[in-house]
Amino acid sequence: MRMVPLLVFTGLAALPYPSFAQDMPVGYLCCNMRSDGSIMIDINYEGPKEHLVPAGTPLKVTGFLWHYRVIVDISGRRQYIKNDYSRDLPMNEFVKRYVVANDPAVKIANFPEKTRDAIASARLMKGMTREQVLMSVGYPVSTENANLGAKTWKFWLGSFDEFDVKFDDDNRVIEVDATADTRAKVFME
Question: What range defines the domain where residue 176 resides?
Answer without folding.
Answer: 104-186
